[in-house]
């Protein structure tokens, strides 16, 4: 690895641990060892969720794994402002509260090579175990409890979104969600990508993703729907697509609706 983590983070007071894409711990600084009560030999080479297990159906496990999935899928930093997560210490499983940031480290091809986790133990602050007379501590504890409520709402929303995506992807008709005046693909189901030859379209404007539709009226219809907010639908509209760049265009007739 090109980054000398020991030089940068070894003496940092904030806990850091480095994970590979399988969530295997490959490095940790002294602060991380101290806050988790572990020796280095216990951690290195271990899967983080195996060394620090939580019940598979618990909020703790869902929040942590969800954050890692988002980093691996998007290559972007993900934050967990507050996550309850138990840590076994001296044979006892103790519920603790953490604030974590997961930062991807990308390889030369732009893929996630490692995830750098920075995690802070905020258990005392969450429980407001310091003097109640300290108004600042009380305010911070209140904020953390509000953060917990929001995190739980986001977790429920995430579960609903996963259900929606699953149902969406299994729909027999071809479906996609576009965003903004450039009609950037956010989601496309399997039927849709099969129709266009399995090309990669997510994150691309429709004119870039489907140049073979230029001049056939579809782009102009999308512009009208976006500008007016009114849905349009057609039956048996002709469309020429090129699922395979090495073969001639394919003539289709499609029933469709563009719905804002």
Task: Name some characteristics of this structure.
Beta-Lactamase, elongated, 2 domains, 260 residues, 28% strand, alpha+beta, two-stranded antiparallel ribbon, 10 helices
Short summary:
This protein is of the alpha+beta class.
Write up what this structure looks like:
This protein has 260 residues and is of the alpha+beta class. It has 2 domains: 5-167, Beta-Lactamase, CATH 3.30.450; 171-258, 2-Layer Sandwich (Beta-Lactamase). It contains 10 helices and 9 strands. The chain has helices spanning 5-9, 30-36, 40-43, 48-51, 59-74, 123-127, 135-170, 190-195, 206-209, 218-228, and strands at residues 16-19, 25-28, 78-89, 92-106, 112-121, 176-179, 184-188, 232-241, 250-258. The strands form 3 sheets. It has a 5-stranded antiparallel beta sheet. The chain has a two-stranded antiparallel sheet with strand order 6-7. Strand 8 (232-241) and strand 9 form a beta hairpin. The protein is elongated, with a radius of gyration of 24 Å. The mean pLDDT is 84.
Ends: how far apart? 47 Å
β-strand percent reads: 25-35%
Question: Could you tell me the mean pLDDT?
Answer: 84
Unreliable runs: none
Taking the sheet with the most strands, its summary is: 5 strands, antiparallel
- CATH topology title of the largest domain: Beta-Lactamase
Shape: elongated
Radius of gyration: 24 Å
**Which homologous superfamily in CATH is the superfamily of the largest domain?**
PAS domain
Percentage of residues assigned to helices: 25-40%
Order of helices and strands: HEEHHHHEEEHHEEHHHEE
Structural class: alpha+beta
Quaternary organisation of the protein chains:
single chain
């Amino acid at each position: 690895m090109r980054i000398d983590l020991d030089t940068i983070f070894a003496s940092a007071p904030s806990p850091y641990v480095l994970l590979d894409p399988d969530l295997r711990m490959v490095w940790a600084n002294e602060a991380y060892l101290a806050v988790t009560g572990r020796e280095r030999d216990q951690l290195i080479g271990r899967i983080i969720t195996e060394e620090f297990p939580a019940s598979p159906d618990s909020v703790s496990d869902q929040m942590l794994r969800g954050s890692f999935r988002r980093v691996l899928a998007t290559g972007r930093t993900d934050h967990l402002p507050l996550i309850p997560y138990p840590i076994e210490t001296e044979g006892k499983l103790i519920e603790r509260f953490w604030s974590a940031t997961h930062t991807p480290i990308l390889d030369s091809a732009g893929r996630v090579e490692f995830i750098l986790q920075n995690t802070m133990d905020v258990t005392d602050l969450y429980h407001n175990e310091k003097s109640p007379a300290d108004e600042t501590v009380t305010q911070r504890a209140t904020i953390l409890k509000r953060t917990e409520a929001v995190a739980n709402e986001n977790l429920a929303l995430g579960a609903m979104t996963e259900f929606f995506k699953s149902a969406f992807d299994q729909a027999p008709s071809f479906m996609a969600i576009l965003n903004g005046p450039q009609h950037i693909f956010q989601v496309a189901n399997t039927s849709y990508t099969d129709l266009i030859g399995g090309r990669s379209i997510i994150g691309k404007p429709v004119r870039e993703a489907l140049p073979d539709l230029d001049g056939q009226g579809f782009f102009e219809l999308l512009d009208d729907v976006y500008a007016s907010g009114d849905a349009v639908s057609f039956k048996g509209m002709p469309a020429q697509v090129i699922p395979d760049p090495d073969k001639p265009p394919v003539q289709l007739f499609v029933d469709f609706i563009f719905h804002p």
